[in-house]
Specification:
Adenylosuccinate Synthetase, Chain A, domain 1, alpha/beta, Adenylosuccinate Synthetase, subunit A, domain 2, disordered C terminus, globular, 5-stranded mixed sheet, 10-stranded mixed sheet, 31% helix, 2 domains, binds inosinic acid
């Protein structure tokens, strides 16, 4: 097994950060392919908590290169702050795609004002300017990292480009100067790391190196296949790797999908298995379900099999990584949504339209629980999951620390990563 992709199977916050961190010490390059500062990947090294927003988790491992692919949108201030938290020597291992787009202050301002204008119809975005930045990219008027290192761009072309773009927008007059200054800081600090990462990946692949592609968010937030319009503006699924890196997904050997043994969502949009009241409060408290980026309380519910089947198909999934299993320790049985009832009919697929998804009633089954989670006690639950989806469980996470991870199937070459 040479190249692996790790994706979130729900609405984000599945615990991908930890799984990526565990697998990364067995690889040469970790690659982010979409999203930006909306992501918040958390890992505990001993008891020290580390949250990364732009940088792939792999940067925390000595000798592992980190690539921010062309599919990402990069917020200068956030990136510079994160870079300030990693050792100077790690910066040489960081490569930023010259095709990645820059999130500028007018994007953040637009994100905020649109959310305020939506009058009860909010998406519940992270307010990081993600949607407006991708919008400028699609409208072919964005600023790319590669522009920043072109002679004269920041000083001469950027102010004019932004004046044109911001004309008529409800943004403060200072945004142009602020943007110029932020772009200058990125160029001065990280200009040498901005490169053609598609070529870099092709060369390193040819040299026999191993890659790990790190999805951010979750595939139910996929712009095309998620719960549109309550989605993010990129493709967090495996399918996003191609457009987000220029590396052929045909070369990827294994796709690991991360899901908690229950489900969470932040922001608005349908969530069929969502809990209310006391059960909601107690699951949120047990799982400490508060957003890593925004601190918002997460909505919580039970595992949802129709949604997982949708994710299996979308990601051409090979195996599951089950996370936060310890949160449900001590339950005799675990409720799982195995189908829906829509207009009196039983269905087992994940409806495309949010109006349908908002109306479904979950059909709940009780699956076997465990006393204290380990590779043996999880078996009956894992077998039910495999029976329902056709996909085996390969990784079990039993706590927040790196060493609280069990590999149920050998990850050739990656195994040494787990200590
Ligand atoms: P945006 O990506 O900030 O535009 O937000 C769009 C939707 O995706 C909102 O519902 C957000 O809460 C959700 N979202 C974005 N990034 C994450 C993430 O990393 N974890 C969980 N939800 C996210």
């Amino acid at each position: 097994m040479r190249h692996i992709c790790v994706v979130g199977l729900n609405w984000g916050d599945e615990g991908k950060g930890k799984i990526v961190d565990v697998l990364s010490s067995g690889v040469d390059v970790v690659v982010r392919y979409q999203g930006g500062a909306n992501a918040g990947h958390t890992v505990y090294i001993g008891d020290v908590k580390k949250v990364l927003h732009h940088l792939p988790m792999g940067i925390l491992h000595e000798g592992v290169a980190a690539v921010l692919g062309n599919g990402m949108v990069i917020e200068p201030r956030g990136l510079l702050e994160e870079v300030a938290t990693i050792p100077e020597s790690a910066i040489e291992r960081l490569f930023l795609s010259d095709r990645a787009h820059v999130v500028l202050p007018h994007h953040t301002a637009l994100d905020r004002s649109r959310e305020e204008d939506r009058n009860g119809k909010k998406i519940g975005t992270t307010l990081r300017g993600i949607g407006p930045a991708y919008q400028d990219k699609s409208a072919r008027r964005g600023v790319r990292l590669g522009d920043l290192v072109r002679p004269g761009f920041i000083e001469d072309k950027l102010p004019k480009k932004l004046a044109e773009r911001c004309d008529g927008l409800d943004v403060t007059s200072g945004v142009i100067e602020e943007s110029v200054e932020l772009c200058r800081q990125v160029r001065d600090r990280l200009g040498a790391q901005i490169t053609d990462t598609q070529v870099l990946l092709a060369d390193r692949h040819a040299a026999g190196e191993r890659f790990l592609f790190e999805g951010a968010q979750g595939c139910l937030l996929d712009l095309d296949f998620g719960t549109y319009p309550f989605v993010t503006s990129s493709s967090p699924s495996f399918l996003g790797v191609g457009p987000g890196t220029g590396f052929s997904p045909r070369k990827i050997d294994h796709v690991v999908g991360v899901t908690k043994v229950y489900c969470t969502r932040v922001g608005e949009g349908p969530f069929p298995s969502e809990l209310r009241g006391e059960e909601e409060e107690s699951l949120r408290a047990a799982g400490n379900e508060y957003g890593a980026t925004t601190g918002r309380p997460r909505r919580v519910g039970w595992l949802d099999i129709p949604a997982l089947r949708h994710a299996v198909l979308l990601n051409d999934l090979d195996s599951f990584a089950l996370t936060k299993a310890d949160v449900l320790d001590g339950r005799d049985t675990i409720p799982v949504t195995v189908g829906y009832r829509l207009d009196g009919r039983e269905i087992h697929h994940f409806p495309t339209h949010v109006d349908d998804l908002s109306r479904v009633e979950p059909i709940v089954e009780e699956w076997p629980g465990w006393g204290t989670i380990d590779e043996h006690t999880v078996r009956p639950f894992a077998d039910k999951l495999e029976e329902a989806t056709g996909i085996p469980v390969s990784i079990l996470s039993t706590g927040k620390r790196r060493d609280e991870t069990v590999l149920l199937t050998p990850f050739d070459g990656y195994v040494g990563a787990v200590r």
